Automatic annotation (TrEMBL):
Record's keyword terms, sorted: Aminotransferase, Pyridoxal phosphate, Transferase
Identification of the protein by name: Diaminobutyrate--2-oxoglutarate transaminase
Enzyme class name: transferase
Natural source organism: Streptomyces vinaceusdrappus
Compositional bias ranges of the Polar residues kind: 149-161
InterPro entries the UniProt entry points to: Aminotrans_3 (IPR005814), Dat (IPR004637), PyrdxlP-dep_Trfase (IPR015424), PyrdxlP-dep_Trfase_major (IPR015421), PyrdxlP-dep_Trfase_small (IPR015422)
Gene3D superfamilies assigned: Aspartate Aminotransferase, domain 1, Type I PLP-dependent aspartate aminotransferase-like (Major domain)
């Protein structure tokens, strides 16, 4: 594909052919968000058709600094220009050492001084599986524990009973918690509940595993979301933003949980460099504090805005991880039905796109519109995001069929990006 083809936007002509060999899930997402991105910077994506969009998905939050941040690009170029190997399996490199050193600086008190880092495959369930293997290795050898307790099992509000959920039941090898359940609809765990889970697992000698895949690197207003509750986990699952937008995953664990064996995948050198640069930039520029302050103001504005719309059920989140739960506008249909709630969110997502705003949908019913702007987003840019979201909600509420009026995608050239 030539650069001239990208400039002309003719890449769209090849989409149907390419779609025939694409993964079905990826193709479905492309249909929901029919944007062919060719350039990006910060909060903004430019499509092959020349239109520009404010991106509040940002790789499901993996782009903590937004698209193509200069410090990330510089770190990648330095590795390429040095002629360093890009993959060396289990051998330690200066790039990996730099990443681990920077990561250690950011870890929660109580874990940093005793931390060990294990890299793992950066996709699918492997990071959590690796964490469970780390947690279960010492306990499993001595007690035969194999079970796992998750935040879904505990309901983000209940704590395991003294009998560990059943009289005589074997204690689990580990408990996996998410400080904010993003994919389930942006559900923050109460800090008091997190502290009680820490107390309960410590009493039972059950390793506490905190999954920071979506919440880490400043996203929620603390460098790691677990810090809001003031506890130190035994194991942390890190992925998403730690690679600076490139695939990278690691498990950080307390040194007395040292497992046997080594993992073959030690981390792509470009991702390690990009990740170290991202971690350092977020730390040095106090972007977690920025996320806390701007996120708090954004949630307050959204809650005030929600009073205007009957389709808004709830506004929730932490920092710059925000969810807007939707249902059908009053009197349209049986709002208890999942399909009705999801259809409203689909319509709002489509109306946002028409206005130059890219948002995500999550939750069991797909009825929660999620905002994950980069931590570098400005007050002016966030105002533009909320303006477009409000326009989309107005369009859906005014439309008799809930689809909103047709219209061209709005340009965003009036917003500093």
């Amino acid at each position: 594909m030539t650069k001239s083809a990208v400039r002309r936007g003719t890449v769209r002509e090849g989409a149907p052919t390419r779609g025939a060999v694409r993964d079905a899930a990826a193709d479905a997402r492309a249909r929901v968000l029919p944007v062919v991105p060719v350039r990006a910077r910060g909060l903004t994506i430019e499509g092959a058709d020349g239109r520009r969009y404010l991106d509040c998905v940002c790789g499901a939050g993996a782009l903590a600094l937004g698209h193509n941040h200069p410090v990330v690009l510089r770190a990648i170029r330095e590795v390429l220009d040095a002629g360093a190997p890009l993959q060396v399996m289990d051998l330690t490199t200066p790039v990996e050492d730099a990443f681990v050193a920077e990561l250690t600086r950011t870890l929660p008190p109580g874990l940093a001084g005793r931390a060990r880092v294990r890299f793992c495959e950066p996709a699918g369930k492997d990071p959590v599986a690796t964490a469970l293997a780390v947690a279960a290795a010492p306990a499993g050898a001595a007690t035969g524990r194999t079970g796992v307790l998750t935040s879904t099992d505990t309901g983000h509000g209940s704590v395991p009973s003294t009998e560990d959920r059943a009289p005589g039941a074997a204690r689990p090898a580990g408990t996996v918690l998410e400080p904010v359940r993003g994919e389930d609809g942006v559900l923050p765990a109460p800090d008091a509940w997190m502290r009680e889970m820490r107390r309960a697992t410590a009493e039972r000698s059950v390793p506490l595993i905190v999954d920071e895949t979506e919440t880490g690197v400043g996203r929620t207003g603390a460098f790691w979301a677990v810090e809001h509750s003031g506890i130190a986990p035994d194991v942390m699952v890190l992925s998403g933003a730690i690679g600076g937008g490139l695939p990278l995953a690691a498990v950080v664990y307390r040194d007395d949980l040292e497992p046997g064996g080594a993992h073959a995948f030690r981390g792509n050198q470009l991702a390690l460099a990009a990740g170290a640069a991202t971690l350092a930039h977020v730390r040095e520029h106090r972007l977690a504090d920025h996320a806390a302050a701007l996120g708090g103001r954004t949630l307050a504005r959204l809650r005030s805005l929600a009073e205007e719309f009957s389709c808004v059920v709830d506004v929730r989140g932490r920092g710059l991880m925000i969810g807007v739960e939707l249902t059908a506008p009053d009197g349209r249909a049986d709002t208890r039905r999942r399909g009705v709630r999801s259809a409203t969110a689909v319509a709002v997502q489509r109306e946002c796109l028409r206005r130059g705003l890219i948002v995500d949908r999550v939750g069991p019913s797909g009825n929660v519109v999620r905002l994950l702007p980069p931590l570098t987003v400005t007050e002016e840019q966030m105002s533009a995001v909320l303006e477009r979201l409000a326009e989309a909600l107005h369009a859906v509420e005014r439309s008799p069929d809930g689809h909103g009026p047709p219209g061209a995608v709005r340009a965003v050239s009036d917003v500093r990006v």
